[in-house]
Specification:
Blueprint: E1 8-11, E2 29-34, H1 43-51, E3 78-85, E4 91-98, H2 107-111, E5 118-121, E6 126-128, H3 138-142, E7 149-151, E8 156-158, H4 164-168, H5 174-178, E9 184-188, H6 189-206, E10 213-215, E11 225-229, H7 249-255, H8 257-280, H9 289-293, H10 317-321
Parallel strand pairs: 2-11
Antiparallel strand pairs: 1-5, 2-9, 3-4, 5-6, 7-8, 10-11
Helix pairs in contact: 7-8
């Protein structure tokens, strides 16, 4: 994968400065998914697997048109089919392309304890570096969209990379290249927001969808993948799309207050050990007398010699009879 020209702005579990930070300006890229024009053809699923050379996985029939219930470590892009009943009693399909959202404030990167296993480029793409992954799975708990998936054989976690290798060379992601209806668009975040807002306004004014809107949740700082939805008041109907996603409080608590409290406790313990050594000195080991003998003798009074006690003479029985 050719990603040499991509600058990094965030590195997981990295204590120092980010190399090359601020040396290159790059616009944030974004993928726009118009759910109102998706026909569920799954061309994007096939293109994703072919371009990323993902191994084949058995599909599961669950009384739906979906290829499988959810994404997998070897299936990064999945069209979700949801049958929805409108207020007038009519039925409609709510189809949504499910993949990594590439959050501006990614919970997976925040939760990762391995230095450099997850990076965020200056263009907004969040990418996993499997060679540095330790397989702890913390990134899975940190994602509010349940996207990263664990491979039990390789002990690594995988997800959509937004085709960072193609974007580096000025190409659009493979899924967008394969879409036949124009449901998918790719460009800068500002341009995609403009197109999305125009489409949402069109749905409100001409297609009888008064609650149509753009899904770009501020709880994660905005996302690099945005949706045009028929009804912004019922985001959960689109395959469980959270209405207000945030990084889990457990991750924030562990990575910030508890982390600093743990550092303070460790430093306090070291200081206590040092003070105890200065005040009381080293402790003798009763199981190692040779080590204790090497210590200089303690000054004290001289030992008192005991006088020998005379033993009574031994007499025999014959001498006693005399």
């Amino acid at each position: 994968m050719s990603q040499a020209t991509l600058r990094i702005q965030k590195i997981s579990a990295h204590a120092g400065a980010v190399p090359g930070e601020g040396t290159q300006r790059e616009p944030q890229v974004c993928k726009l998914i118009d759910t109102t024009t998706c026909i569920g053809c799954k061309a994007c699923e096939v293109a994703c697997m072919e371009w990323n050379d993902l191994p084949f996985g058995e599909t599961i029939f669950d009384n739906t048109y979906q290829t499988m219930p959810e994404t997998r470590w070897n299936y990064w892009n999945l069209i979700l089919f949801n049958e929805h009943e409108r207020e007038d009693g009519s039925l409609m399909w709510l189809m949504r392309k499910n993949q990594c959202m590439h959050c501006a404030d990614p919970g997976c990167l925040e939760a990762c304890p391995s230095d450099g296993a997850i990076v965020q480029y200056t263009n907004g793409i969040v990418d996993f570096q499997q060679d540095k992954c330790i397989g702890c799975g913390y990134c899975i708990t940190g994602c509010p969209f349940n996207i990263p998936k664990f491979n039990k054989e390789t002990k690594r976690v995988y997800k959509c990379t937004l085709c960072a290798d193609r974007v580096t060379e000025g190409l659009e992601p493979a899924c967008i290249k394969a879409c036949p209806t124009g449901c998918l668009h790719f460009g800068t975040k500002d341009d995609m927001r403009y197109l999305a807002n125009a489409r949402a306004k069109q749905l409100q004014e001409h297609s009888n969808f008064p609650h149509a809107g753009v899904y770009d949740p501020p709880g994660v700082g905005g996302t690099g993948v945005i949706y045009v939805l028929h009804d912004m008041t019922q985001t959960e109907a689109y395959g469980g799309l959270p209405s207000d996603p945030h990084i889990p409080w457990s991750v924030k608590l562990w990575k910030h207050p508890l982390k600093w409290l743990g550092n303070v406790a460790m430093v306090g313990g070291l200081i206590g050990l040092f003070v105890h050594y200065i005040r009381f000195g080293p402790k003798d080991d009763p199981d190692n007398p040779t080590e204790n003998q090497s210590m200089p003798p303690v000054a004290g009074p001289p030992p008192v010699k005991e006088r020998p006690v005379a033993e009574p003479p031994v007499t025999t029985t014959r001498e006693r009879l005399r």
